[in-house]
Amino acid sequence: MLNQCVLTGNLGSDPELNFYGEGQPIASFNLAFRASKKQTGWIKVVSFNRLAELVQKYLHKGARIAVIGTLDQKRWEDEGVTKTAFNLIANYSEFIKTDGRGFKEGTAENDIPF
């Protein structure tokens, strides 16, 4: 069975960068997307390694992106109630609009990956 999701939306906050294992980077952020004409949906996006570094370096709250990845479902018990959440594990991100914010001082144009 195929598990692939494509979403476009805006970051709800600046990406958070953490490290796992032997120092491999992992970046996460919440992505707002249009669920219907009147409703906004939210999903947590997680990226690893080089993509995590790029996300942390170039993206910021409000940036518009497209993400391709797989859905990962988490279940847990909270006070006897089973809860469920979905994360999008990003395999690819296309930076659509970043407004130039988030770029480090002195970043050369040829250093920008898009």
Question: What does this protein look like?
Answer:
This protein has a single domain, classed as Nucleic acid-binding proteins (OB fold (Dihydrolipoamide Acetyltransferase, E2P), Beta Barrel). Helix content is 9%, strand content 56%. The chain has one helix and six strands, in the order E-E-E-E-H-E-E. Strands 1-3-4-6-5 form a five-stranded mixed barrel. A hairpin with a 5-residue loop joins strand 3 and strand 4.
Write the layout of secondary structure elements.
Elements: E1 5-11, E2 16-20, E3 24-34, E4 40-48, H1 49-58, E5 64-78, E6 81-97
Parallel strand pairs: 4-6
Antiparallel strand pairs: 1-3, 1-5, 2-3, 3-4, 5-6
